[in-house]
Amino acid sequence: MKYSESFIKFIENSSVFNTEEKREIIEHFHDENVYLVFNLSVLLFVWSMSMFFVDLFLISGLTIYLFMSSMNINFFIIIPLAFLLLNILFKYLTISFVAKGRIKCHILFVSSLPYIGFAFLLGHTLRKKRIFKRAISSYIKYKRKSLNIFHKNKEI
Question: What is the spatial distance between Cα 13 and Cα 137, in angstroms, rounded to a whole number?
Answer without folding.
Answer: 15
